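User: Predict the structure for this protein chain, please.
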Amino acid sequence: MTTDTTSSGSIPHRWLAVPAISFGGIGIGLLLATAGIPYAILAGVAGCVIASFVLCYQAYHKPRKDLVSIFTPLFAFFILVIPNEISSGGPIVQIFFAATITLLAVRVEKTFNAPKAEKKTMKQILNEYIGRINPIISLVDEETGHLIAQSLLTYKFGLYDNAAEKSKEALARLEKITPRQSALERALLILQERAGGFAESRVTTNPKHVFEETDYNDLAIRLRPDQVEDPVALDLDNALILLYAVGIETSPDDEQALEEHQRFIIQILESYKEKLTA
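Assistant: Here is the predicted structure, written as structure tokens:
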């Protein structure tokens, strides 16, 4: 399963506004000073302060936050605005400050502009899975969907004989659907076999019915062979999720009941969370 990412939202070369404004203000201040204009040094101060706010704005709107850059206006205020020994350094201090925030602007653009990975929730993965198997869902009529939903619900309630019977009825109806939905049929066969075993108080360790390679794209939990610890459990989990997805989308009568038991399906997915989001 893939993960979502936040967009970078970057405007190319926008970071250049920081050195342009800060050094531009310093340059104007020096020109005014050579002309003998009083308080010309304030142009450099203004340029650095404005540039610090520009940097703060840019850093705040990046996918990842750089707190140093975000707080540069505060640093500008204490270093350049409040009278102190540092601010008395005039253009030299301004040039040093402008160079520093320019480096920060470059760092923000190169390091903090990368999209931030956000892991999907299991509910998002389930919803995406339902959308992915829509070609299967679209072929299942309401009555067949009801039988599929009931096979899952009765299995969940521990009514294993009923679950096996509902699965058998659903399979009989699926045989009439063209093209054949092999993955869905195998899901019902897997459930029927496991339910039959539980009805006889035995655990099925060597099942007759398993998913095949051709079913891979229709399964919710798709793992590499080296990731599979228990193939029998994995087949059952995939069967339950597939039946849930088809049932909730095709059987209006069972929609509320299936939604109430959605946590059961989410818990199955969560047991594979590390592998699904790896």
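The chain is about 65% helix and 0% strand.
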